[in-house]
Amino acid sequence: MARASKRVTIREVAEATGLSQAAVSYALRGIQVSEETVERVRRAAAELGYEAHPMARALASGRTSMVGVLCGSLEDLWQQQLAVAIGRALLDRDQYALILDAGGDADRELRLARQLHDQRVDGLIVSPLDPSAGLWGELAEKMPIVTIGDSLRDAPTAGEVLFDNRAGVTLALEHLRDLGHRRVAVLTPTQPSTPDRPADVHVSAEAERLGLRVQIVASQHALPVATETARGILSEADRPTALFCFSDSIAYGAYAAAGRLGLRIPADLSVMGYDSHPVSGLLSPALTTVDWNTQAIVRAAARLVMAAIEGESHRRRIVQKPVLSAGASTGPPAAGPPAAASSAVLG
Known about the structure:
The structure is a single chain. Helix 8 (165-179) packs parallel to helix 9 (198-210). A 6-stranded parallel beta sheet has the order 2-1-3-4-5-12, with helices on both faces. It has a 4-stranded parallel beta sheet with strand order 7-6-8-9, sandwiched between helices. Helix content is 41%, strand content 17%. It is α/β, with parallel strands linked by helices.
């Protein structure tokens, strides 16, 4: 009978690299050491056939090796992209992502957050629907929380990867203003139950400063709903000349609605997005949107939550700056009535 091979230990990896066992342990989790050391240790571990024993590690550390990733709505393609990338980044650090979808429901979001705590995840990464909910403060006292997008009000989070929404809104509205638009509809996933989201607040302030007449309308990310919401706006007698969508996924609904109504983009209607999803470049015409550098967000969130899990008490705030990604979906407003033909289709 073949004899079972002996499991390679951290001590053997440490001897092969000339590092301490603690340094090897940190490197295998991708924390507190340089990228060069991480690569060196992982290469040696692979050559030796080292595999971490998850049950032994959990018993020794009191951890589950799971991080909750709570998404506001996975009907938003950008949030899907974000969740997948965070899951991979955590796996590189020997952590498993437990990804949950709040479905655009702020109450459901809080229930799921509590459930993740009850399941003893080592930490939580959340892109909150309701940043002002009181439960966040309670949960942040019990487990490390890293928030993406907006700060959690009165919650001692372990880290924040915030969007400079004031700059993003200004980029979008100034772009439309400079093209000559004065009537703009803003489609936002924010619901009436959470009216104080920073991005929406900035819209009203910037619209007044720029002399724009802005109509703010709530829309879900789901394509059929976003399409019907945009179609309703565009069917009005005094319809806006531009739509600014707080999600590229919502902008896809605007494209579909424009096509159904015979409106050409951008000749009859300008459309802007807000998160630069890869699909946006495949549209015809390509979508003008605001790019937040998704990979930088992922790296920062994974790094912050792992540092907190390892006991680092220093709270860090990272503010992500936006960049205007100019496509071909925006142009000057039409001088006359809209034409019948439309080129707003997927390429």
